Amino acid sequence: MELRQSVGLIGSLLLFIGAFAPIVSVPLMGNQNYFQNGKGDGVVIVVLALLSLIGILGRQFRLLWWTGLASLGVLLFTFVNFQLKLSELKDQMNTQLAGNPFKGLADMAVQAIQLQWGWAVLIIGAVLPLVSAAMKPAQAERGVA
Length: 145
Prior knowledge:
- This protein has 145 residues and is mainly alpha-helical.
- The chain has a domain at 3-74 and 114-142.
- It contains 6 helices and 3 strands, in the order αββαααβαα.
- The protein has helices at residues 3-18, 41-57, 62-96, 103-111, 118-134, 139-142, and strands at 24-26, 30-32, 114-115.
- Helix 1 runs antiparallel to helix 5 (118-134) and helix 3 packs antiparallel against helix 5.
- The chain starts with a helix and ends with a helix.
- The relative contact order is 0.23.
- The model has no long low-confidence stretch (mean pLDDT 85).
C-alpha cells in the first residue's frame, strides 16, 4: 500500500471513529457524540467516512476532495450551530434568571459545558483524505517504470 492510500485510510478511519468519540461534555448528561446530538450529522459523517474508504480502496482519489470538503463542512456547521445555541442559552439564562438566587448555579452549569477531544479526531479525519487527494501519485501508478 502506498503512502497516499495509507494517509487516506487513516483519515477515513479517524473520521469514522470520531463520529462515536465525545465532542461535548454537558453537566448531568455526560459526554455527547455526533450520534447523540439529536440530528443526522453522525450518520452523514459515517457515510462520508465510508465513501472515503471506498474511494481509497478503489484508488479514486478525486472522490476524496468531495468527501473531505463535505466532512469539514458538516463539522463547521455543527460547531458554529453549537456555539450559537450555547450563546443563546447564556443570554436566556441572564434574562430569565435575573434576580433569582439560583442564577449562580445555572451559570456554573453552563460554564461547565466543554468541547471534548472528539473534535480533534474528526478534524484530522476530515483533513487527511484531502491530504491524500492532494498527494502526487506514486511513480508506478503514473505509468513510470
